[in-house]
Amino acid sequence: MLNAALALPMADSPPRPELALVHAEHADFVYRSLQRLGVRAMDLEDALQDVFVVVHKKLAGFDPALPLKSWLFGIAVRVAVAHRRKAHLHRERGDTELEHRLESDAQVGPEAEVMERQGRERLAAILDKLTPEKRAVFVMFEIEGKTTVEIAEELGLPLGTVYSRLSSARGEFQRAVERLHRTQRSA
User: Fold this and answer.
1) Fold category of 130-186 in CATH
2) Which of 20, 57, 77, 181 has the most CB atoms within 10 Å of its CB?
3) Is 37 exposed, middle or buried (0-12, 13-18, 19+ CB in 10 A)?
């Protein structure tokens, strides 16, 4: 009798979400999160699929009382880290980078193209040094222009955590830029 009672879900416990519904409602959020976390454009679809493979495997163990977006973001962070590690092994140029280069060549001269590419590479290198969690908050605030309240809601984080990560990421970013300027001056 006791075993049967333990097997029944609590009456006030929210139901577990279904995979198709989770995907339909949150695929865009996961995709944007993977972008913010530094997954290359050519790997985004694969990374998105990898996230939902993990979701499929672990959804039965998900506690529906917890925020779903936070859980998905945590999975996205781990998948993004794995994809970024693989990207360092495969230095391929993606179609979008090649298209951007062709468009730039038609619009600006070769010097401007080189300077723009070097700037993007420097920014990517600095962002790659941030932890995935700090990088996501930094990109959302500084590049996408979201407010800290919007970031907290979207990532399912307490507002204080967003402020802390943003402050830390800004400090690390500033120090990296200063190091870059020092090395350029000494070269």
Assistant:
1) Arc Repressor Mutant, subunit A (1.10.10)
2) 77
3) buried
